[in-house]
Amino acid sequence: MQVGLQKSLQQELQFVQVVVKDSGDSFSDVEEALQSFPNYLFDDFFDDDDSRQKLATFHVKFAGLAIPGPITSSNPKYEASSLMCSHLIVAIHGTCEFCTWDHKEIIWEVKAELTCNNARHETALITLASK
To answer: Rounded to the nearest 5°, which phi and psi values hold at 100?
Structure first.
C-alpha cells in the first residue's frame, strides 16, 4: 500500500514539475518535509549543508534514498520536457509541419544530452559519497 502511494505521489509531483513552468517555489513545504525526513530516519538532526543530508538525494544505486529536492529539480525537468516536445509544440502552433522523424530525432538528441549531464552529475555524487 505504501509503495503504491509513494509511486503515485512521485508521479504527481513529476507531472506538475514537467508541465508547469517555474513551479519550484510552490514546493517549499514539500521540500521542507523531505529535508526533515532523514533527520527522523537517522534519529539525528543535522544542518542542511551536512553531507548526510545530501545523501538523501542520491539515487539508490549510490546508497541514497532517491528523494530529489522538488524546488531544485523543477526547472530542469520542465526545460527537458519542453525541449523534447519542441517540434510537437511548434507544429501545434502552426509554425512548421509535423514530421514524426524530426520529432523522434529531437527526442533522441535531448535524451543523449541529458544522459551526458546525468553522467557528470553521477561523477559528482560519487565524489561526494566518498567523503
So the answer is: -55, -40
Q: How many domains does the chain have?
A: 1
Distances (CA, A) of 100 to 84, 87, 118: 13, 9, 27
Distance CA(48)–CA(125), nearest Å, equals 16
81: phi then psi, degrees, rounded to nearest 5: -65, -45
The rounded distance, in Å, linking the Cα atoms of 74 and 60 is 20
Residue 102 in grid coordinates: 524530426
Tell which residue, 129, 10, 130, has the closest CA to residue 59: 129
Domain range spanning residue 98? 2-129
Taking only the tens place, the pLDDT of each residue in 66-105 is: 666 677 777 888 888 888 888 888 998 899 999 999 999 9
